[in-house]
Amino acid sequence: MSARRVVGAATAAALALGASACGGSGDGAKASGGFTYWSMWRADEPQAKVLKAAIDDFTAATGAKVNITWAGRDIAKKIGPAIAANQAPDLWDESDDKVYGTTAAADQALDLSPVLQLQVPGEDFPVSQVLPAKYFDMLPKDPSGSNHYVIPYEIVTNAMFYNAADPAIAAAMPSPPTDWAGLLKVCDALKAAGKACIASEGEDPWSNALYFDYLLNGAGVNVSQLAADKSGATWDAPAVLTAAQQVEQLVKGGHLIEGYDATKYPTQETNWASGKAAFYMDGNYVTAEVAKQVPAGWKMASMLPPTAKTPDANLIGFASPKRAKNAAAAQKFIAFFLQKKHLAGISTTALNLTPRADIPAPAELADVQKALDAPAVRLGFDGVSGSWLPKVLNENYLDLWHGKTTAAQFVAKCKADQVSYWQTQG
């Protein structure tokens, strides 16, 4: 899954779900313990295969029928109308931002806290002991005060990926740099060796702005608080300008791959996978995306930008409409799927990360897993949602990233646009 398909700011509820809207299971749910389930995956995707195997085992073990629909990526557009029409499934899955934006923010998501108290079948301890609380702590609360509207089974995080077996990278970076000056030295050494430091999809504000996001995190600046300041005064903080200047150093130093500002995804991902640049910032799913492109001997590694304090995380997991008719049966399945023997397939078959610390990550994601072992995680851009990113940050950041504006001009323009933005928000 790519950032362009999974992550991104959550929007306000897709439809206004009034108090009269009532959820309910669609066709096929049985009073005997069955339930309906809509999944974001297509039937031919690895995650679907892992889920299907668990569903078959669940039915064999309990006799409960699961009416599954492999709905694909449009599921978030379908769930609101389905709730309004009383045709919603008992269970669905999506990324945390889409669950929040389409249902939880409108108080239409069921609080799944009871799942945490259920026993993981065959493992003699509750779900709460296999799902770290930090993944819930980072989420915004719904109007009812709950941040348990999604139960994760897959974790996505963003980092700078590189080939540790590349001699040029090994020579330039004997060990990961601990500060920004160290990263610039690595970039200078790579440039001298004839290799670009960073591959960038130049027209993608989200992945490129992750450098700025992580730099702000390292400086103690919360992007959500920055965005919420209606006066714009927070943009005047010296740490904000410093972070922008550090980004500017990458641009002015010639450390971005040639032609980055005139290409679109996946051009530069492909160039990076062929060894034309050292680093590529993206979600951990990129390792699976390029698995068939990278040359033999490639050793996938990753690191956070120097000074970053807290890794970001995005959850993919289960959710239920607030008035699901067969919620109890669906919750039993959630606990069933979180068994190590089933959930491990997300790592071994889908080649992605799980929230369980006792399930080893794929070898390509070992560094990412180490980063996620941190005591806390955070949402990318500290969970900023709605239209602030496209209205204030995105285009201004691309101008900085493309060398069209200076760091000081970028900060001033964002401040001015943010003041105007909040004036239009009522």
From TrEMBL:
It comes from the Bacteria. It is found in: Cell envelope. This is Sugar ABC transporter substrate-binding protein. Belongs to the bacterial solute-binding protein 1 family. It comes from Kitasatospora aureofaciens. Residues 1-21 form the signal peptide. Keywords: Signal, Transport. The keyword Signal applies. One of its GO terms (cellular component) is cell envelope.
